[in-house]
Design brief:
299 residues; alpha/beta; Rossmann fold; 8 helices; 9 strands; 46% helix; binds nicotinamide-adenine-dinucleotide
């Protein structure tokens, strides 16, 4: 359902009021932020297709949504495989008709200093954090473009898309591969936002702070053989007791879609300082080189 025009929105998109006439695909919806997003969408009555490589988890979330009285479906998908993503889009349309919302949540985290990382480690993190989103958008967005009822894409990056953390700010973990790929997700998503605006499709980048999930464990157990194969990770290690509840994330995603935000933030009040520091550093760099510009023009 399309409603009012957002006066502050430079793209002049009509805002999307989520409702029972909408269908969403939530990839990586079997847990964590994907589960929270799906529950948020379902709270608005949106039909949800929960797609995940771990089908049992997807089924559990689809059952939760059915328990709310909202239609849902669990579909197995491998977000690193174009055919699997095409089959997901096909199955969604077969079951529920037009697709309106795509939420991409597949990702991995890997603790490795940049210069120590092998090609296989880079390949793994790029494939899961960036290319899973690139592939899913290519498979699903053309189907959203086939109707004129509007739509929205939410690509999950991280606050690591907005600044680079020093290891001592993140408990000594080397987040370089993660940060690099999450910055790429923001660049991809912001550009897609401009490309899809003429079609009336909104695009947002979800940049959460810490949310309750088992990302370390799902990263390791779903690592394909070509990137080193699966490994066990103790899910209880490193769990952050102050993480946001999954259920709360959905509220932010729904608000971000309905207000067509460029970036959807959790923990906005805590993260702001780091973005301001980065902006200040960049401003200094601009001033430094603008002075060289001025000298260069004089000669
Ligand atoms: N949890 C956090 O604190 C946090 C913060 C910022 C960003 N993120 C990002 O949020 C996204 C979701 O992570 P999460 O923390 O909710 O962890 P999660 O492990 O709960 O979610 C990832 C989901 O993706 C699924 N998956 C893995 N490989 C897949 C594949 N090839 N195809 C389809 N599904 C696959 C997993 O089974 C899992 O359900 C990631 O991109 C992560 O980087 C997480």
């Amino acid at each position: 359902m399309l409603e009012t025009v957002h006066d502050d929105n430079p793209l002049f998109l009509e805002l999307m009021k989520l409702g029972a006439d909408h269908t969403a695909i939530v990839i990586g919806g079997g847990g964590g932020i994907g589960r929270g997003t799906a529950l948020g969408l379902a709270s608005k009555g949106v039909r949800c297709v929960i797609a995940d490589i771990e089908l049992d988890n997807a089924k559990a979330v689809a059952d939760e949504i059915a328990g709310l009285g909202v239609a849902s479906l669990a579909v197995p998908v491998d977000a690193t495989d174009n055919d699997s993503l095409a089959a997901l889009a096909e199955e969604t349309e077969r079951q529920f008709g037009a697709i309106h919302v795509l939420s991409n949540n597949v990702g991995v985290v890997h603790d490795r200093a940049l210069l120590d990382a092998t090609d296989a480690e880079w390949g793994w993190v790029v494939e899961f954090n960036l290319m899973s989103i690139v592939r899913a958008c290519a498979a699903v967005v053309p189907r959203i473009q086939t109707h004129d009822a509007g739509g929205h894409v939410v690509n999950t990056a991280s606050m690591a898309a907005l600044w680079a953390s020093k290891p001592d700010e993140v408990h000594g973990v080397n987040l370089g591969l993660y940060t690099t790929t999450k910055h790429a997700v923001l660049g991809y998503t912001e550009t897609l936002r401009y490309e899809l605006a003429p079609d009336g499709i909104g695009v947002s980048c979800l940049c959460p702070g810490t949310v309750d999930s088992n990302l370390m464990a799902t990263s390791m157990r779903n690592r394909p053989e070509r990137f080193g194969g699966p490994e066990h990770f103790d899910e209880t290690v490193g769990m952050n007791p102050f993480a946001m509840a999954q259920e709360d994330v959905g509220k932010y995603v729904v608000a971000g879609i309905e207000d067509d935000r460029t970036v959807v933030l959790t923990h906005a009040s805590r993260g702001r300082r780091f973005v301001d520091e980065r902006a200040a550093t960049l401003a200094e760099d601009f001033e430094f080189f603008a002075a060289i510009d001025a000298e260069t023009k004089e000669t």
